[in-house]
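User: Sequence in, structure out. Go.
Assistant: Echoing your sequence, followed by the structure tokens.
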Amino acid sequence: MEQLQISFEPYKEKGMETRHRYDLNEIIFDLDSQIKILSSQADKLDYLVSIASGLLCGGLDIFWTGSFNLEEGRARADNEVNGFVKNTAKMLGCKDDDLKSAVRFLEKKFPIPSDGNTPDFGGGLQHHLRDFAHHPTFVGLAFSLLTQFTYKAYGTDVHGNFLIVEISEAGKTFIGKDIPAKILYGTITWFFHLVSDVAGSNSSVGKSGGTGIPGPILAMAKELSVLPIFKDINIGDNSLSVFLSKLFNGTLLAKHDETGAIIKESILKFDLRAELGIGAELGKQAIPVIANECIVREFYFIRRLATEIRQSNIHSLDEIKELDWERILPKNNPTLARMLTIATGVFTTVDVGEAIISQKYLLTVNYVGVGRFAVAVGQDVAWCLKSRNIKKIKQMYENIKRAAYTQEDQRIYEKIGSDMMDTGKFGLTVEQTELLYNLEYYKTVNDIQCTKLPIGSDGIKQLKQQWLEEWKEYITAGFSSFLQVTDAELHWYSQEQMIQKMEENEPSGTWFRLVLLEAMLFEPYYPLGLEKDKKGNDIPSRKYKDLQNAIWGYNKNDGDRYLDELFTGNYYSKGYIKRLRKCYEKVLRELNEVLKTVIVSLSVTAAVAIATIATAGAFAPAIAVALVGSNFAGLSGAALTSACLAYLGGGAIAVGGMGMAGGTIAIVGGGAVLGIGIGAGAGGTVSAIGLAGKKNTILQSAKLLVSVREIFLNDEHDFDYSNTVYEKYVQNIAEIEKGLVELRLQADVADSNEKKKLKAKIKEAEDSVEAMKIARKNMAKFMSAFKTGMGQP
């Protein structure tokens, strides 16, 4: 299969090469395009035609091809061989037309020395198998030449042992006198002698088919049988040598009467004619397989040609050459590979199913069809593996993007809207971004210093240090591209200088808490580059794969502890990082909520409900605070109790919830309402859900929610600004849903290929907006509860 090369630097204009290397969005876009090229684009119609073709040709195989019949195949091959022998003899001067005369003529004209050693190789019935000079293989040719130079014959005895014997006096007359003659006798004479023997000797020809020569398959098996590794192999009750002898003389495949004696008429010799017969039978089996192949490829070609003509608005034959024939020709693409896998799979299923139903099993199986299905599966898997490699590379760059503060992150923080009252709350300046990277650097240094293992600690530390230096170089080189700020330069400070710079930038501001949030979420030791696998494909570097585990990889607790203890000023209270972490993981649980976690939540809270019903709600406020009080770090006393009750009740009455009364009712009267009210992870009992496989929308929405909950509400009590954030977020959801309506309208009138692409976009947008809706509910609920706690109207 043609190797598809992926280029990560398509822009060759001056100054663009370096920039593109760190343009993560552009790289990811390019990789997405490559993934689409390597992925099947087959649609419902393609699958239906492939299935129909497999069924049709499977039926053709059953009703026309029939059972595999070696005897019929050998008979057809026997006629072809007899005709070939007679025509060859006539071409070389034979005057008679009968087969026996032709064989006698060729034997007399082309004798070989080892024919005189027939008794040494066990007699006439087996010497063609046991004498290697009678094998139509390269080994047979080699031993024929060797005989000419050594005056010895080579083969096996009756027990299968390698045998070397002197050429008889009569046989020596057929050995060349000089080197040219020896080569002539060992090649040309040898070849035409095999032609004379292929239909049997002149004394046996016409009698039960005569004793022919072994075919290439049987001959190679016999040659291998003398090697020590194969010599002691037994097949059933027979040694390998005996098994091959019985196969050659026909007794192995013969039928037996009631007494166990062989029925002479059923003897079927497995010689060259039998192997040719197998080829003939397989050729018959190949017809429906080829038909299946042609139908699928023809449909693929006609449909893609019609689509290209329509899309390119072709109106004349002269314009045909403008078509993209690579997309039309039925070869070397994943869509065709998938269609052929379906078609050949259905064909083989029908074929094997008929063999089982008819109980003929191996006799009616289409072996060509089985082989073609295996090849189709292999090709389909090959495309999938190519796509998987690109997906791994894409995942690597997405990890780099997630761990780097880019212009997109800046827009995420600022996209709440330029019409907001105080856009300064969101986003970082270039210098503040620089401090963020410095903080991530020293957080990783701390992780390296905290690495302590019973064995191999120094090696792991060294590997971590190598990653850190590589990351530092990568971030330094890509700093300008990440921020889309021309000539932006990243400076690296000592830890003391970094702290001083932060103090100069007024760490009491919102930016500092955003930096802490970004630094907290930063997890090092992800791949930073590519390498070649054994097949030469680009894959994410495995240089640091030993660091990507929970034992000696990055320790999240050490990282959080470092950030929590680094600054000694009044910028945040001790335990602040722990609070951010807890909030972030809780938000992720809520954004990743699935049925199973909701059920678990209900089962946990139901026990609380049962325990409190008997007290008539007397302890409802205390239970509310115990369940969700940790969410409201900025409240205490009555305000905390009111916020917790409102949170469990679904929000304040002002935004349509049941308010404090609803919270009390939920705790006292119904676990279901309580479970729905607090979402997944009730009471903090459900462990945090990992981020793997979640879309960027969830990750960015999680950061946004943590910012609103912890920074703007719990820290700053800025409800008005948080409400503006909420309104803009709702507006963003509305805009996405409006775009979804437009996409659905486009999909209704699009052709099949375009409709598939649009449906994929619609699905992605639906997933994103669903996550955003969950985030919106989360935000509204928390804001309403916080407002209630603050006693605001």
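User: And one key feature?
Assistant: The mean pLDDT is 76.
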